[in-house]
Amino acid sequence: MKKMKNSIKLMLAAVICALGFISTLQAQEYQKGFRLGFGLNTGYLTGDEYSVGLGADARLQYDVSKKTSLAFTTGYTHFFKDNLPDDGFIPLKMGFKSFLGNKFYVLGEAGAALGVINDTGNTFLWTPGIGYATRHIDLSVRYENYNEYLTNQVALRLAYGFSLKKKNR
Is residue 15 part of a domain? Predict the structure, then answer.
């Protein structure tokens, strides 16, 4: 578990460095159409059952305007326990993303968490969050509420995204 905590500290240091890099990039340019992003997540779990959460996700986003997008997110999240078997689930969420300015946004998603380890079961999942996005980098913090699990999560996501729209030549 000590290795896991050191890995989280290293990931947080990388995120802080990425924030410095992100601040030098230009604002994200939005065009109506689809975007795809791949992210890594780490989280602080609020219950006593688990010690840390790690995951990866893919988010398909449809930009309906310069300020508003629809999002579908899935992936895998793993909850680590001290001295007990771990748990894992696949989140399936749909929601919206609304930009407050050029780079900062709010995000709201809802869906299901499908348990895949130790008969965890399925549960309703809702996720409000805030983030900062450039043309390719997306950094966000979100709260994940798992209706039937014994914990909730405050998670940090660092993602790389790109447009699926073909450029005119």
Answer: yes
Looking at the 3D structure of the chain, how many domains does it have?
A: 1
Residue 168 lies in a domain: no
Spatial distance between the Cα atoms of 144 and 147, rounded to a whole number of angstroms? 10
pTM metric for this prediction: 0.77
For 26, the domain range is 2-163
Burial class (CB in 10 A: 0-12, 13-18, 19+), 79: buried
pLDDT per residue as tens digits for the range 17-65: 444 444 433 334 445 789 999 999 999 988 777 889 999 999 999 999 9
73 within 8 A of 58, measured Cβ to Cβ: yes
Q: Which amino acid does the sequence have at 159?
A: A
Contacts of 16 (CB under 8 A, 6+ apart): none
Report the length, in residues, of the chain. Answer: 169
- Cα–Cα distances (Å) from 81 to 17, 47, 87, 88, 163, in that order, read 29, 11, 8, 11, 38
- Does residue 169 fall inside a structural domain? no
The CATH number that applies at residue 93 is: 2.40.160.20
Alpha helices in the chain (DSSP H): 2-22
